[in-house]
Amino acid sequence: MIINKFLGKTKEEAIEKAKKELGENAVVMNVKEVKPKGIFAFFKSSSYEVTAALEEKETVVSPMNALNSPKKIHDNINLAADEKIEIPRPVRSNSDAAAGMAVKSFVQPKTDSKNEEKDIEKRLDDLSNMLEKKLGTQTPEPEEKQIKQKSSQELEFVRILYSTLINNEVNEKYVNQIVEEIEQFIRPGNSVDVILSNVYQKMILLFGRPEPITLSNKKPKVVFFIGPTGVGKTTTIAKIASKYKVEQNRKVAFITADTYRIAATEQLRVYANILEAPMSIVYTADELNLAVEKMSDSDLIFVDTAGFSHKNAAQKNDTRDLIQGLDKGYSKEVYLVLSATTKYKDLLEIVDIYSSICSYNLIFTKLDETSAYGNILNVKLYSGAELSYVTNGQNVPEDIELFDTQRIVKQLLGGK
Fold it and tell me: Per CATH, the architecture of 221-404 is what?
């Protein structure tokens, strides 16, 4: 008897391959669904493995020769069943599919006779033993390398997690990384709560620790705010300056290089008057250094730069010259201010442009105008910059806070 296995995308395709190689007389002995491997197995289609056999021509043994050579009788016994063996694929329940149960051989008996059923079962056992010996030369896949079938509850959790992160506008690339890394926690004995806890911790680490503006003994600290137009740079400066002035009793000062918009200059002047802080308008790096020198007794000097389109090369160069032109004797920090409502594609272009100017930390504004915070994680991972502050309204100085990593992660995972 010739026994081989054939693989196809469908059961019919695998059977057709078997018939083509072994002929129309080939007997289908077993049909097994082969499930795809990996954490994303539920996104892929199964294939089918058909085990088929071809009965070789029997050798006729005469009674006289059989008597003379009794030890050779076993070599000529036909171990095939009396009738054609059909092994249909049984109906698989959800629990069977999740557990990856193999399809077992099935024989429809001719009659209801118990003796015949036992006889057929014995013959099938003989055929099974022959099959194992025939395929024994093939090295089976080690058990530890076989796909670990997840329970339906765990797979449903992965589906929900994937969908939730995508709906929160986390880029698919980063979603895949998160899901793939939690595969190690999906094992027997680990509840969904354990898996979710590990996802939560992983995302906390991805965001990192938020970094506020740091003060040093050396005065003054010059803090630049850069970013595209309309993201709320001037208002953000006023909020941060108010907190340091009112809550920490620090001496603050303002410089604006945003000479393209008169309204921006006037807006900053209003905030400066309220806080009783000095303010200067500069056009070049030389003027910047002169203004900083006059304000050298301040703890913090906030510099408002011109907002420009990330496609405007001339204004980009002006901003670079201003930041890089600051005297190296002064300590400085740079913050890129971005709106949480900006499209992901535009955010990437903005990040690329400003990365060519200098290194920076990130501030996200307008969190109150969106319910999807995925872009915060996207930009953090794409730029490699540290997160700092977020704003969630127009009120000064109330609507600003240090980035709350735990709260944002909970919201990205569908919490409140």
Answer: 3-Layer(aba) Sandwich (3.40)
CA distance 53 to 51: 7
Phi and psi of 137, rounded to 5°?
Answer: -75, -15
The answer to whether residues 26 and 54 touch, using CB atoms and an 8 Å cutoff, is yes
Q: CA of 194: how far to CAs of 184, 197, 241, 286, 409, in Å?
A: 12, 5, 42, 58, 16
Q: What is the DSSP letter of 221?
A: E
The domains of the chain are located at 2-145, 152-207, 221-404
Rounded to two decimals, the pTM is: 0.63
CB-CB contact of 257 with 322 (8 Å): yes
Cα–Cα distances in Å, from 383 out to 142, 163, 176, 306, 388? 42, 24, 18, 22, 14
Q: Could you tell me if residue 210 is left (phi over 0), alpha (psi between -120 and 50 degrees) or otherwise beta?
A: beta
| Rounded-to-integer distance, Cα 155 and Cα 165, Å | 16
The mean of the pLDDT values for the chain is 76
**248-305 residue pLDDT tens:** 999 999 999 887 766 778 888 999 999 999 999 999 999 999 999 999 999 999 999 9
The CA distance from 226 to 238, in Å, is: 14
CB 254 within 8 A of CB 277: yes
Task: Grade residue 241 by pLDDT with cuts at 50, 70 and 90.
Answer: very high
Is the backbone of residue 247 left (phi > 0), alpha (psi -120 to 50) or beta?
alpha
In whole angstroms, give the CA distance from residue 271 to residue 153.
55
Q: How far apart are CA 387 and CA 208, in angstroms?
A: 8
The DSSP code sequence of 242-278 is: HIIIIIS---EEEEE---S-HHHHHHHHHHHHHTT--
DSSP H or E stretch at residue 401:
strand 400-402
For residue 204, the SS3 value is helix
Q: CA separation (Å) from 225 to 144, 258, 306?
A: 54, 11, 9
pLDDT digits (tens, 9 = 90+) for 315-336: 888 889 999 999 988 999 999 9
Residue 367 CA, chain-centre distance (Å), reads 23
